[in-house]
Write a structure and sequence with these properties.
The protein has strands at 23-27, 32-39, 48-49, 53-67, 70-75, 79-82, 87-103. With 114 residues, it is an all-beta fold. β1 and β2 form a beta hairpin. The protein starts with 22 loop residues before the first strand and ends in an 11-residue tail after the last strand.
Length: 114
């Protein structure tokens, strides 16, 4: 029995926006991508523990990732991981753009609820 393979393309106009300002990009059954674009400096985001693992890559800017009591500064070209269920927050230090992948997909069900 052969498995059918399809390519899903999500254009800029098709990408939906989440409640926290993220733009949802391509999504598969077990992983999805999202974009945080031109996030502005300010107070840290509320702490959260999500039901998905996140890996990210900084395209531009700087931020602090506060993860389970550890603070990691992120800058252009850096990548990071937030384990599933880990308490974390971000503090944007200068206009910040990053792409993240989440597994399982963040936008399914209430996984991405603030």
């Amino acid at each position: 029995m052969s498995e059918e393979h399809n390519v899903d393309r999500v254009s800029d106009e098709q990408s939906s926006q989440g409640r926290m300002g993220q733009r949802y990009l391509a999504s598969g059954e077990s992983v999805s991508m999202r974009l945080w674009e031109n996030e502005q400096p300010g107070e840290p985001k509320p702490e959260a523990a999500r039901e998905y693992e996140t890996v990210g890559y900084v395209l531009a800017g700087r931020a602090e990732l506060h993860l389970e009591g550890e603070v990691v500064e992120l800058a252009t070209g850096d990548s990071w991981t937030v384990p599933r269920g880990a308490t974390h927050t971000y503090r944007i230090l200068e206009p910040f753009t990053a792409v993240e992948a989440t597994s399982p997909p963040a936008e399914v069900g209430d996984r991405d609820a603030p």
